[in-house]
Amino acid sequence: MELWWVVLVLGVIFLALLARSLVYHYLIPMLRVPAIDVDASDVILKKSESPEDNYIYIPKKVKNSERVQCYEPATMKYLGFFPILKPEEVREHVKQAREAQKTWADSTFKQRRLLLRIMLKYILDHQELICQVSARDSGKTMVDAALGEILTTCEKINWLLKEGERWLKPEYRSAGTVLLHKSNRVEYHPLGVIGAIVPWNYPFHNIFNPMLAAIFSGNAIVIKVSEHATWSGCFYLRIIHSALIAAGASPDLVHIVTGFAETGEALVGSVDKVIFVGSTGVGRKVMEAASRTLTPVVLELGGKDAFIVCDDADVTEVVPIAVRGALQSSGQNCAGAERFYVQEPVYEKFVREVSSIVKSVRMGLPLERQSDMGAICMSEHVEKLQSLVDEALEDGAECAVCGIHSMGKNGEELVGQFFPPTVLINVNHSMRIMQEEVFGPIISIMKFQTDQEAVDLANDCNFGLGCAVFSKDKRRANAIASKIYCGMATINDFATTYMSQALPFGGVKHSGFDRFAGIEGLRGCCLVKAVTEDRWPFIRTVIPKLLQYPVADNAFEFQGALIRMFYGLDVWTKINGLTDVLKALSAANKKTPVQK
Ligand SMILES: NC(=O)c1ccc[n+]([C@@H]2O[C@H](COP(=O)([O-])OP(=O)(O)OC[C@H]3O[C@@H](n4cnc5c(N)ncnc54)[C@H](O)[C@@H]3O)[C@@H](O)[C@H]2O)c1
């Protein structure tokens, strides 16, 4: 047969297998997925509403309030009031979740996948609604929401559908030297009820992210949403509940609790594990509270990622990534690019090109398609951003781009909490702006000379979440990244480790510890149990007579010989050990007293 014939036949077989796999694994399951109906009548923006109809809400100091007050940071429009749950109410939610989890623990992976597909289908069909709700509550633009809420969540669901079961199945491990007759495995059982305390910056993804991992691994979850994203969180819970019911599961598997610090603290003491995502200061308090009940805790805290551009990098290609990394969601990202270190030969070009893009950024209302950047979620944060910039300028920094507070793209005054995208140069590490988490649309750029200097600057920071290194020489970029003390590194890209949902997410130093995404995060929701059993039916552990009680006089010598036999570094030591084992056994046999 001619070679091309063989290639053709193999090609057809390959395509047929691929088509079969696609039909069985994707098409049929997707077709069978029921659609859910979620009441969104009260969150949809009415077409007839004009800005003049909007009730302009000026938030008071909400901490002393009786209720959680929600408003749109971009328009200050009132969104709703939600209860501040008391500790006993939080415990009641946990109790209900615990009850529902008892049945869910025995659910099959098929049922769990069905649940995920129902959610995925809803998300795909309602992207605009989900983004609108997030944009109104947090101030981010629709595109920022599509990237940070939808894309990341779909990727997580997809990864769990494809690989989730594989990583939760028992994993077999080697038996070691002495216990060759044993079969060893690690089992991953659900922990029970996971408690997640989450921030406001991605109202949809911050709920779905821990919820998906917890539920897929057989747990229930109680989520304390941020007081700044309660309105959206309570709507997203409706999606989850409808999906749970459609998948034949109890809606009690997922609860949302609303309130402030006291509500969050009550959750810490009543669940089996806490996933805390938030600021370093609050993370400390959560760890303190968790220590009282010895509740395990994952801390995913703030960041101040270094973005390093070497002299051989293609600056024109890097700049759009740099600006997106800094301005996505108005810079309110834990893994946001905050410290830019650019090598001297390309520094001027980098500053020029970054400034040119930043000047073109249109700050405006989140729901308007022409807005590139939205609002700042927390009112007091706008003041903090301004003070960081003012202080840096006083200390010698220069403004390459500085906008005016709350000024829209056409020069109109914006009512809401806006901060203009800013580029600062001549900054240094004595300035607060290069040390504290900024969490805003500020690009601070510093020059460096050598690779070692870039590493030293990147490491001269209390945070250690992620970093990015750009160089045409991959080996050089990897060498720099490997010396930076942080949890995640991207080479010639920014923060894309998060888009690979198989990878763990988390940091070191003041960025926290442990991991909440990827295989590590999924298994982190589990009780990790080591199990060992006999490998073959007729071979089992027998305690040699001379080690049985009362032990023989030469029991210690026997034990020593046994250890030499197993672990001797050369063959003679092993043979010597074996000989001594046999001698000890025969001596013990001779001495065995006759039992009466
Ligand atoms: N590393 C990550 O994965 C990640 C992701 C997103 C945001 N963040 C960080 O989150 C911060 C911004 O979010 P934020 O302002 O909502 O953070 P925050 O720490 O103020 O609040 C986070 C959550 O903790 C709750 N809380 C407050 N006090 C508490 C207490 N004493 N006990 C228990 N819970 C309490 C809040 O109500 C909220 O739900 C930034 O520092 C950002 O870097 C980290």
UniProtKB/TrEMBL annotation:
Coiled coil: none annotated. Residues 64-531 form the Aldehyde dehydrogenase domain. PROSITE patterns: ALDEHYDE_DEHYDR_CYS (PS00070), ALDEHYDE_DEHYDR_GLU (PS00687). Keywords: Oxidoreductase. CDD domains: ALDH_F15-22. InterPro entries: Ald_DH/histidinol_DH, Ald_DH_C, Ald_DH_CS_CYS, Ald_DH_CS_GLU, Ald_DH_N, Aldehyde_DH_dom. The active site is at residue 300. The keyword Oxidoreductase applies. It comes from the Eukaryota. The keyword Oxidoreductase applies. Belongs to the aldehyde dehydrogenase family. This is Aldehyde dehydrogenase domain-containing protein.
